[in-house]
Structures are given as structure tokens and as C-alpha cells.
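Hey,

Quick one before I head out. I ran the complex with FE2/S2 (inorganic) cluster overnight. Inputs first:
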Amino acid sequence: MEVHALQDRRPGAPRKRMLASPVPAEGENGLFSQSWFPICLATDIPKGKVIGRPFLDGRVVAFRGDDGIARVMSAYCPHMGADLSIGTVVGNNVQCAFHKWEMNGDGWCEKTGVGDPAPKNACVYAFPVQERWGVVFAFNGDTPTWDLPNFRYPDDELLVSVSPRIDFSADPWVFAANTPDAAHLLTVHGLEGNPFVPEEDINWFEHGFMYHSEWLHWGDKKLDWDIGIYGTSLFIQDGTLDGQWFGLAAPFGMPEPGKSFSYFINVVHKGDGSDRSELRAKEWLRVSTNLEITFGTQDLDILNGIHYRPGSMTRSDKFLAKFLDYLRAYPRAHPSADFIR
Ligand code: FES
Ligand SMILES: [Fe+2]
């Protein structure tokens, strides 16, 4: 007989909220998770252009010099703090609009506007940068601790479509926690399958996990995919619907605590290069992109308003519970703090 359950629910019995320890919020104690975050689209910075963006509760500039390399640096000039996003790209340097100091590709001041020698220590913070799938990423840290993952096909065999920026009102890890939350695939997305994910289906590694699962979607179509999270900010999916391959990378940006944004990067295989296969690939990219947009939209209202507090859990939450532990222990730092504010 379930005496305890009955006793707990007697009218007038005290109620106690069951709460596990919280996941640290981004920005808590001035720290952010050490992860790759998207900054802007590659097309936002053609050669010779500099733009400003909020990042890690501060401000950075992204620019591209003559060498074609995308760079991300703290936005405030080491001289008097002018915003470098209103400056100019000169060669591979960014030049401040105020007294024309020039910072080189590594962030060091190379020259001043009036001919004084550049002070030895004058620099901005230069973030590690990667450009993949049409998006510019910066790592929160002096040295990246992990690399952006690959799809099962090399990038040059992919047809890629990148969505416009989508803004959210939650930290990136809140969206990341959606992936090990297999139960919600049934309750929110309407997939059919087993929400209990056995340990052996999950491949945990130091900075993330991938797991293999099979579902039924759209009534009878088999969804057979590997999905996972890298760091705290990148969702990746690689699998087939009804035997046809498609992939998605959804990186989540970190402009300020409690906010994020994403670009949904949808990919399909280009095919054999013939006109017919190109047409087919384009159509499949359109269909699979719509599928992902539907998935994303279904999560949106829930995650935008959530006060993410792990409470009572069941057997199907085991994977999620382990991921929440991973998040609690995830390395956090803010080495650019003195530069970007
Ligand atoms: S504030 Fe940038 S050069 Fe003076
Ligand atoms: Fe979801």
C-alpha cells in the first residue's frame, strides 16, 4: 500500500518543493562556460568590413582583412576605449576611428595615428576563431578545449542552408539540455519511440556526447539519427529520415546572461554533381529545413519562458540528469572580462 504517497497528499499536509542543485547560470560569479559560440554570419563581414556584436555580457568586433581571415576581438580600443566597430579595416588590421591606433590580426597595437611608438603592452583581446558552415565562431577562452565536430560527409560535399538569426530568452545550455531530454521528443515533438535511453546508446566524451536513437515521425517515417551536444552551446544531428540523409548544426550564441540566439545550419549531401542530383538535393534541403524549423518552433514557447530548475525526476530523465551533472561541472572562465566591457 502506498502509505507515503497518501500521507503526503492529505489535505493540509505541508508541501515541499523537490529541487536538485541548480545548473550555474551563464554570467554567474562573472563566469561563462568555455565553449564555441557563434558571433555572426560569414557574409556579415566581407573583406574590409568591421562590425560590433554583444558577447559574454560585453562587446566584441568581428572583421575580415585582406588575407580573408575572420577575426573576433574585444571592441574597446586600448587607448581611450573608443568602439572599434566604427573604425576601419586597414590591410589585416583594425584602425580606431578616434586617434587612428591600429591593432594587428593578433590584437596587438602596431602603430598610433600621430607617429608615437605603439605602447608595448597595448592590445585588445583576440578570441580563438573558426569559420564553419557560413558562421563565424569564437571560443570563450585563451585556447580552445575542443574542436567543432564534423558531419559524416566532408564539408565540401554538403549543400548548406543557414537560417536568419533566431533570438531566444534563455542561456544556451537550456537549449542544449533539450537533447538528452528524450521524453520531450514524444511529448513536444510527437515522435514515437522509447523515451528511456540506455547507457550503451550514449557516447560521452570530455566535452559532450552523441547518442544514437530511432523514432517514428510523421506517422510511419523512420527517423534514425545521432544527435548530440558539444560544449554547452552546439547541437548537432546527423541521420536519416526514411533512409534519406540530412544534418543540422544549431550553435547558440552568448550575448548576455539569460539571452541567446541561433542560426540553424541545415545540410544535405550535394549528390553526384549532375543537374538532376543538384535539383534533388535542393528540394530535400528545403523539406528537411522545414522539418527542423517545425521542431525548433515547437520548443520555442516552452524554453523561452522556462525557469530551469531541476526538480522531481523519473526513470526517463536519467540521461537528462547526467547531462545536468555535466553542466554543473563544466569549465567556466572569463579571460576577456577586462577587455570587453
Ligand atoms: S581611443 Fe582609439 S586611438 Fe584613441
Ligand atoms: Fe526539442
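The chain is about 20% helix and 30% strand.

Talk tomorrow,
K.
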